[in-house]
Amino acid sequence: MKGLRALLDRHTLYEIAQWLEESQRWDLAPHEIGVLMEAKHSYYPDKWEESYTPSVLIDYETDLTVYDQRLHPAREGGVQR
């Protein structure tokens, strides 16, 4: 009951019903619905202008499998220490 009251404090009943109709997520608790409704309105911040990252590394994504192999060589068939 407390979660439903908090949800209704932040959103109207119409907004909640509209979100439920769109998402078809009838199995969620009120606090979960509130979090998902808030996430729908959030956005990623704009990139900052910066001068210290080399242009080669801008938008570069690290291959985490290589990192994991170096960090945990025993898992990849390396020597156990």
From TrEMBL:
This is Uncharacterized protein. The lineage of its organism: Bacteria, Bacillati, Bacillota, Bacilli, Bacillales. It comes from Geobacillus subterraneus.
